[in-house]
Amino acid sequence: MTNSKTTELNRRRMLALGAAAIASPFVLSRAAFAVTPAEIKSRGKVLIGIQGDNPPWGFVNSSGKQEGLDADLSELFAKELGVPAEFTPLAVANRIPALTSGRVDILFATMAMLPERAKAVQFSKPYGANIITFIAPKEVEIKSPADMGKYVIGVARGSVQDTDVTKAAPPGTTIRRFDGDAPTMQALLSGQVQAVGGNIFYVPRLNESKPGTYENKLEFTKLYNGACTRLGEKEINAFVNAFIDKIIASGEWGKIYPKWMNNPLPAFPDSIPGIPFTVG
Amino acid sequence: MNYQFDFGPVIEGLPDLLWGCAGTLGLALSGMVLALVIGIGGVLLRDSRFASLRWLVITFVEVIRNTPFLGQIYFVFFALPMAGIRLDPTLTAIIALGVNGGAYAIEIIRGGVQSINKGQIEAGLALGLSRTLIFRLIVLKPALRAIFPSLTSQFIMLTLTTSIASAISAYELTSVGQAIETNTFRSFEVYGVVTLLYLVMSWLLMQMFARINTRFLSYPLK
Amino acid sequence: MDKNQLLFLLGGLKWTLTLSVIGFVLGAVAGLAVALARTSGISWLERATAGYIALFQGTPLLMQLFVVYYGLALAGLKLDPWVSVSIGFTLHASAFLGEIWRGSIEAVPRGQVEAAKALSLSYIHRMKDVVLPQAIRISLPATIGFLVQLIKGTSLAAIIGFTELMRAGTIVSNQNFKPLLVLGLVCALYFALCWPLSVYGTWLERRLVTAAR
Description:
The complex is a heterotrimer. By secondary structure, chain A is an alpha/beta fold. Chain A contains ten helices and eleven strands. Chain B is mainly alpha-helical. Chain B has one domain (16-217): MetI-like fold. The A-C interface holds A 2-3, 6-7, 9-10, 12-13, 16, 30-31, 33, 52-53, 60, 62-64, 88-91, 94, 97, 101-103, 179-183, 185-186, 189-190, 208-209 and C 2, 4-5, 7-8, 11, 26, 29-30, 33-34, 37, 48-49, 51-52, 55, 67, 70-71, 73-76, 78-81, 91, 94, 159-161, 163, 170-175, 177, 179.
């Protein structure tokens, strides 16, 4: 029985691979993954994609519990739905695939709101903010993006800093990509790279290990973070937006936010060019 | 909404992917050369007169064969710099591949050496064959014949193992695939095609080695 | 390294063990089916399973995990990540074990199969009572060798973001910034799992060779 199932899967895969060999874009419809708040309630749990190694947003603490700003927001969201949250820790580059392939219902995964991403996923209203920075040891001289070319730079593969650094660095700069924030910082600390693209939270974490060594050299984009659902899923998108409005208006979010971010809750824009907050 | 397959971005990235294949083969080849050097050196030391050297080789083989390659390559890349040894990703990958393959090569080559029949060497001497002829016909060729299949399948395994070097940002097929995936979010399509490319590479290598085997190492037919 | 970090590593170890056991047990069941199909004498079935085995032996485990991980979800199966990672390891194991066991089924002397046929034993009896008991004995060293490969292979689940021993190691070394210590310890834990198995496999192999003399 198991055998027939595996060969069937095999055949299906071969079919998919065969399609690639035909050198033309190949379009095939698949079963719908669409999920509504009502379905989540009747299922009895909400599947949340989150980061597992990116404090203070989403990280697994040393006793194995999911913590951080995104985790707290997720718990509030689950409470709003009246079901428990089930976390799937995701690597940076796995976040969108995990959502589009139906592995999770929603992402609270430090997803920076970017126009190119808005083509792949549906963003909610923003709930957090961050600044993408360029980080290097203090003695390293970096005044403008043109100076970046002199150093070997590390970034987390598929992150916003990946895009920003790639765009800002002069052509020919050596950029090394790693599977997530942890190996990227490790690479800087062990001297495998001389600078990294990161965000405002990299420096405190890096300096925990080598006090007073690193600083932010350049600032790139100011970013807002939003929750993500699949494109075209109206009900759940409306539900998330109403939820975010509600916790901001009640002041609940304003109490939690500074606990993780060391900053008061910023004011969020009503719209961002190229990124619709609602299903149009 | 429905998921729609779209192989367009992957097709566009095909030239890059083929360069990635070249990177993969380059890493595998350099790794294998190092593995053979370690293998031959290890066999010599393994039968050394000094017990400490023998134990060093045995420990090396056991440690490498019983720990994951990802751990080994992380160790060389992230941990060794703390001890003052810093290597770039390509060199790290080659060394990790060579050390890993070397541990297996020691066992394979040792098996080949042990398969040489001492009686035949004596028979060769009795027949008055020159030393070089004895080495070529009685020692080298049978030993090569014995180890060739295992060594070549080890090489194919090493080629597949290079995909793990993407974790330290070495340039090879998997990391090229990941770069395309990052820009297009077409994970299944990208990894499907990348998998297919690995399959083609290992199939071609297998055919090539089979040819070499029948051409140079098969028993003479009378 | 403090106590919490050590406990976190051990939590990762638990997942490494779980993945290994699931992959091995389910892979063994499926692998037996693959081996039997591969030696069935039915030509299309033999060719299909040969292709199946070649597919898994000719591609990197990391890619197999990626394709299964994303592919299952696209095929409409909404599964927990650890379930789909387990399925990936199960498929991988079924192909490798299927090939190992095909070899040992064929290593059972033909005369015995013919004798069993002459006694008009059914296929099931022939396999269950004559061929498989011997084949399993012959295959044990290679089977254990593969189990070691599988345990080491579960470390690749880390690249997908699954918190088993290897990823637990990178997370902890990012907290205390002692990669030499933490990665060394992680490798030592893998060694503690794999080495006794390897030694047992070598011992079995030696015994088998001696018995065959």
